[in-house]
Write a structure and sequence with these properties.
Elements (H helix, E strand, L loop, with lengths): L1 H14 L6 E2 L30 H6 L8 H4 L5 E5 L7 E4 L2 E4 L10 E6 L6 E7 L15 H10 L2 E4 L4 E2 L2 E2 H7 L11 E3 L12 E3 L16 E3 L1 H4 L15 E3 L7 E2 L2 E5 L10 E6 L4 E6 L8 E2 L1 E2 L6 E2 L1 E2 L1 E7 L1 E5 L2 E4 L3 E9 L2 E9 L7 E4 L6 E3 L3 E7 L6 E4 L1
Parallel strand pairs: 2-7, 5-29, 7-10, 13-28, 22-29
Antiparallel strand pairs: 1-30, 2-6, 3-4, 5-6, 8-9, 11-12, 14-26, 15-16, 15-30, 16-17, 17-18, 17-21, 19-20, 22-25, 23-24, 25-26, 26-27
């Protein structure tokens, strides 16, 4: 059903008038006055990040996993994840250069952020309910990712970092004290010597599921989060990041069966995505574009029980201003207030986001200025710099 609908939507893009799509305005003044929210109290037995019953999550946990649903300890870990070639890859002769991630099926939250000014993006996965023993491909961090770690105040796994004057990630960690918190056992940098205790939990993979695929450097590094979390002192408490959830599908809002996230044109169109609503499963599936603009490449989880399509119950577009210290060094505005658009239950809703200090969580508000209630399950947050003429989010 998903594939058929995807093809129908692709044809619709070619033959339907442009007016059928609604383009989001990331810079408009929505005039929303927020009722400032701070921390929510976690609900016993339920995940603060997915809203799911922890007993249900634990029943699906593979052997060797850690995480809140398995151990009862709330200790999220953020991981920098490759998105080269749109997280799909390509085939060259008989060899498939697969760029699909592994472990994403267990992520609570997925962030997509700009990586290069031209339109390439990078992903950050947040794991909390379950911490897998293999996640990847792990890649490097930018300043925004250091700010994201400060927001969650949790463990952070990354393989490389920028250290230029205007985009110095280690200096940013030091500025906020992340390098000394929890006895220095929060920042799991992968490009360190073997004398660091977490280094052993990074491994290099070359094949997946026994298939003829090539995970060439630097798309081959895996992180064992279940082992890394054991290094974080038990008396360290991560920031309370409990979201609000509801069991009811939204009735308000306009219909949104297809969301088009556009980062670039031409050859870099492979970073553009279509999120397609599946009414039967009540979720959005993500399809990546090819260079011709056809969304035929479903975004998959590569390992564990074979390949599996990745689904999202909530899609949040967080619009922000963007400065570029370098062509590969995006610095989005993360403090203050900006526009946010929400897609859940096949509906589109409008609102704003707010975060006043680095130690606060980003709160998403509805059109009435109240913290929005999400659907239970996985959330995709797209941090979109709306000023660029190439960037656009639309839906129909």
């Amino acid at each position: 059903m998903k594939k058929i609908l995807s093809l129908v939507l692709c044809l619709a893009m070619l033959f339907t008038a442009a007016a059928a799509e609604t383009v989001l305005n990331g810079g408009e003044n929505r005039g929303i006055v927020i009722d400032k929210a701070y921390e929510n109290d976690p609900i016993s037995g339920y995940s603060p990040t997915t809203g799911l019953a922890l007993s249900d999550v634990a029943a699906q946990a593979p052997e060797g996993f850690a995480g809140l649903a398995v151990t009862g300890r709330y200790m999220p870990i953020l991981v920098q994840i490759d998105n080269a070639d749109g997280g799909i890859g390509f085939k060259d002769g008989k060899v498939t250069y697969n760029r699909a991630p592994w472990g994403v099926k267990y992520a609570d939250v997925v962030y997509e952020t700009p990586l290069y000014r031209e339109g390439q993006t990078r992903l950050t996965f947040l794991f909390s309910d379950l911490l897998p023993d293999a996640v990847g491909p792990c890649r490097s961090a930018r300043l925004f990712h250091a700010w994201l770690r400060e927001e969650w105040d949790c463990g952070f796994a990354f393989y490389g970092q920028q250290e230029y004057t205007a985009t110095n990630v280690p200096a940013e960690f030091k500025k906020y004290g992340a390098d000394v918190k929890a006895d220095g056992m929060l920042l799991f940098a992968g490009t360190v010597g073997s004398n660091h205790p977490w280094k052993q939990y990074y491994t290099a993979y070359s094949k997946a599921n026994g298939k003829k695929v090539d995970l060439t450097k630097p798309h081959h590094i895996s992180a064992n989060l279940a082992a890394m979390v054991s290094l974080i002192p038990y008396d360290f408490e991560a920031a309370n990041h409990t979201w609000l959830f509801t069991d009811e599908l939204p009735e308000e809002g306009d219909d949104a069966e297809a969301i088009y996230v556009t980062w670039a044109r031409g050859d870099l169109a492979i970073y553009n995505s279509l999120l397609e609503w599946d009414e039967d499963e009540e979720c959005y599936y993500r399809y990546m574009s090819d260079k011709k603009g056809s969304y035929n490449n479903v975004y998959k989880n590569l390992r564990y029980e074979g390949e599996e399509d990745v689904k999202f119950n909530n899609v949040i577009i967080q619009f922000t201003d963007m400065e570029w210290a370098r062509v590969d060094a995006p610095n989005p505005t993360v403090l203050g207030t900006g526009n946010a658009d929400y897609f859940m239950g096949g509906k589109h809703l409008t609102g704003v986001w707010n975060r006043d200090t680095m130690s606060e969580r980003t709160v998403f508000y509805d059109e009435n200025g109240e913290e929005i209630r999400l659907q239970r399950g996985r959330t995709l947050i797209v941090v979109m710099d709306y000023q660029s003429e190439n960037r656009q989010v639309s839906y129909e």
